[in-house]
Amino acid sequence: MGDEPVKISIGLVKNDSVEDYETNTYTKRIEEMANVDLEFVLFPSVETQTKFSAMLAAREPFPEIIDRDLSGSLYQFIDAGVLLPLDDYYENLTYYMRPFLDDPENASVMPYLYSPNGHIYSIPFINKVIGNEWSSRAWINQEWLDKLGLPIPATTEEYLSTLRAFRDNDMNGNGDTTDEYPLIGSTNGWNNLPYNFLMGSFIFPNVNTDYMLFDEDGKLDIAINKPEWKAGLQYMNQLVSEGLLSPLTFTQDQTALRVLLKDESHPIGSMVAASMSIYQESDNKKAMVPMAPLSGPEGVAYTTPYIVLPNAARWYVTSYAQNPELCFRIGDMMWEPQLSVESRFGKQGEDWDLAEESTTEKSLYWNMGIPPYIVRHIDLWTVSLQNHHWGDLGPAWRPYERSDPSLVWNGDEYDYLYTTALAVAGVYQKTPEKYPLPIILSEEENDIAADIKVTVNGLRDEWRAGLVTGTYSFDDWDIYVQELENAGLAEWMEISQTAYDRMQTLID
Predict the structure, then answer these.
(1) Which residue from 329, 332, 374, 333 is spatially nearest to 351, judged by alpha carbons?
(2) Sign of the CA dihedral running 64, 69, 72, 74
(3) Running DSSP on this structure, what letter comes out for residue 287?
C-alpha cells in the first residue's frame, strides 16, 4: 500500500459517546493495519435520511466510504449511481470474510448479502449475541411459588391456575388482597408486552417476517388470521377479564413499570421482559426466575427468535472512491477477529483481556457450552464518553465465541447478564424446524407491498389489542379476517412468495 498512508474519507453518523474519531484507538488500529489516514465526515444523528436525500437531490459528493445501514434508502443510492457493486471484490479480494463465505453452514444467510438486482453493495456487520436473539422471555416470582408450594408452570393451564393463586392469596403479605399484579408488562421497553411470549403456546409468532410461516406445502402463509392465533388472543383475554393480566400492561410505559418493580412490597408475580436489568438496582429481582415457553392446549411451546442476519450492512464503497479496492480491503480487514472484538469492547489491556486458556472461570453461557474468551474490565457501554471504539460501527464478525456470550461471568448470580443467560437456555431454539426468514423485496415489489403491509399490520395490532382487552368482540372475528383480505393480504403474500423464491435461488 506504499510508505505514505493513503487518505480515505469515511462518512458515518456521529455517536455522542465517542470523544474524537481522529484520535480514537480503534481508528488508529485500522490506520496502522491498512496504512491509511481516515478522514471522517460526520452526518447528523437526527434526520440522517433527510440529509442523505438532500445530498442526492443536489448531487453533492459523498465520502469514499459510507459506514451506515442504508437498507431503507438503498434503491435511491443505487439509482443515483452513488454505490459501487462489490461482486468482483467479494470474488477476488476477500480474505478475512472468506472462511465465512465458504462455510456451507452459512448458506441460508448468503441471500442477505445481495440486493434484489443481483449485486452486492456492502460489507456486513454480524454480531451473534445469543441473549438478543432469544429475548422473548418471561419471569415468575419463586418466593410466591414456594409460599404456595407450587412448581414453575409448564403449561398454559398451570400458568392460569398459578396466576389465580397469586391473585387470591395476598402474596406479599401486607393484608391487602388487591395490590398484587399476577402478570404485568408495559407498552415499551425490551419485549415487555406479553403478546409474543403467550402466543407461542398456540402458534409460532415469527416476528422476523411479520408473523409469516409455511403452510403444509411449503408455501408462505401468515399466522394472524388462523384459528390458533384467535385461540391465543382468547387466552390472553381470559387473563385480562379475570384480573390476572393487569390492564396497566397496555397503558403504562417502562418507567411506570419500574416504579412498581421497586416497590418494597414487591407486588409482581410474573412478568414478560427480555432482561432483569429492568429492575435496575432493586433487590426485588432476586425473587424472579425464568420461565420456559408454556405448552398450550395442542402441545405447542414455541418462542420468538430475533434472528441476526448479515443485512445490517455497514460499509458501502461509493463512486467517489479514488481507490475502491483499498476501501473494500479495509472493510474486509475489519472482520479480523481481534478488530471485531475491539469494535465492541474497546482497547485490549485496558477495557478487556483474553481469558487464560487454563482458566477455571465460567463464561456467562457456560451452561450452553460457550467457553470463556473475554474478561471485561470496563463496560464502555455504560460510560458517557469514551475513545476506544466507534460505538460498534463498521463491519465485524463476532460469533458467540467472541461476543457477549463468551464474557467471563463475574460470579454474581443476580447479575442481569447471568440471569439472562439462564433464561436463554430455556427458550433456545424452541421453534419449528423451518420458518421464513426476512424477505428482501425489489424496489418495484416494495412499491406495491409497502402500503399493504402497513395497513395489514395496523389492523393486526388494532384487533389484537382490542380483542385482548375486551374492547372488541370475538364474535366479530370474521370481520377482522375479511378486513385483512380487503387490505390486500393475498397480494402481499404473493409478492413475498416471489421474492422468497428468488432468494432461494441464491442458496440453491
Answers:
(1) 374
(2) positive
(3) G
Q: Considering only CA atoms, which of 354, 333, 460, 438 is closest in space to residue 116?
A: 438
What are the residues whose beta carbons fall under 8 Å from the beta carbon of 207, sequence distance 6 or more? Answer: 196, 304, 306
CATH architecture, domain 138-304+413-427: 3-Layer(aba) Sandwich (3.40)
Tell which CATH architecture fits domain 6-128+308-402: 3-Layer(aba) Sandwich (3.40)
Torsion from C-alpha of 222, 228, 229, 230, nearest 10 degrees: 130
Contacts of 304 (CB under 8 A, 6+ apart): 136, 196, 197, 200, 205, 206, 207
Tens digit of pLDDT for each residue in 48-106?
A: 888 999 999 999 999 999 999 888 788 899 999 999 999 999 999 999 999 999 999 88
Q: What is the CA radius of gyration of the chain?
A: 25
Give the global pTM: 0.90
For strands 122-127 and 138-141, give the pairing. unpaired
**Residues 6 or more apart from 298 whose CB is under 8 A from it?**
202, 228
Cell matching residue 234 = 382468547
Helices 489-507/443-469 angle, 10° precision = 120
Helix (H, G, I), strand (E, B), or coil: what is residue 129? Answer: coil
Q: How do residues 117-135 score in pLDDT, each as one tens digit?
A: 889 999 999 998 899 999 9
Q: Are strands 36-43 and 122-127 parallel, antiparallel or unpaired?
A: unpaired
Cβ distance 357 to 378 under 8 Å?
Answer: no
Buried b (16+ CB within 10 A) or exposed e, 9-40: bbbbbeeeebeebeebbbbebbbeebebebeb
Cα distances from 383 to residues 19, 387, 406, in angstroms, run: 11, 11, 21
8 A C-beta contact, residue 274 and residue 136: yes
Tell me, rounded to whole angstroms, the distance of Cα 341 from its chain centroid.
Answer: 19
Characterise 250 by phi-psi region: left (phi > 0), alpha (psi -120 to 50), beta (else): alpha
The proportion of the chain whose per-residue pLDDT surpasses 70, expressed as a percent, equals 98
Instruction: Give the cell for residue 463.
Output: 384487533
